[in-house]
Design a protein that fits this description.
Number of strands: 4
Number of helices: 6
Structural class: alpha+beta
Largest sheet: 4 strands, antiparallel
Shape: elongated
Helix content: 25-40%
Strand content: 15-25%
Distance between the termini: 61 Å
Radius of gyration: 23 Å
Strand order of the largest sheet: 2-3-1-4
């Protein structure tokens, strides 16, 4: 019978403090993916000399928890993650050091002592600000209001349940990826755009 392997060396130091960190993605750094950010963050934590706690096992990794990251290409003023550290630190000192270590556009806005429970369970809602260029703001507002006040309720009433989705199809169900693509293509044709347009095109148009 093979013997069970155990990692060599002493066990990792225990975490004694958990910090919740709010940061912003601005400018060109809004196009950084979640993986891009995690790599940049781990480098920044090392440069800032944050006493990170690590997992046990053969491949220890820093104890960082992420929650509900904004889509790639979307600027955000309220991205969150939590870290665990092996010695008590001043949250404001961590904020300043980490902000200095991260590139401009990934800006650390707040560091606080985190309470018990999972970070994802504490997030209740998001507030979005959408800029529509080359359009009359009054017309855009009227169109959105018409959909939210009359269009969406009528669609939801005709369906079997939307699951709380904002955009619905003509049967009252959640708008699928394929349907969203078709809506965009139809709008492009009406606007006289001959080139192929996809949701990915919109991501890089702002």
């Amino acid at each position: 019978m093979a013997r069970q392997r155990t990692p060599e060396g002493p066990p990792p130091e225990p975490a004694v403090q958990k910090l919740r960190i709010r940061y912003a993605k601005r400018g060109r750094l809004r196009f950084s993916s979640t993986r891009d950010f995690s790599r940049a963050l781990e480098r920044a934590l090392r440069r800032a000399d944050v006493p990170m706690a690590f997992s046990a096992g053969f491949h220890p990794h820093p104890l960082i928890s992420y929650a509900n990251a904004a889509p790639t290409g979307t600027a955000s003023e309220a991205e969150y993650f939590e870290i665990r550290v092996t010695e008590r630190v001043d949250p404001e000192a961590v904020r300043a050091a980490l902000d200095e270590a991260l590139p401009e556009g990934l800006d650390v806005l707040e560091v606080v002592q985190a309470g018990p429970g999972a970070l994802a369970d504490r997030l209740e809602a998001s507030e979005w600000h959408i800029v529509v260029r080359a359009a009359d703001p009054a017309e855009v507002t009227a169109a959105v209001d018409a959909y939210l006040v009359r269009g969406r309720p009528a669609l939801a009433a005709s369906g079997k349940g939307s699951g709380g989705a904002l955009f619905l199809n003509n049967r009252g169900g959640r708008l699928s990826r394929q349907s969203a693509w078709q809506v965009l293509q139809t709008a492009a044709e009406r606007a006289g755009i001959g080139a192929t347009v996809s949701p990915h095109t919109l991501r890089h148009s702002f």
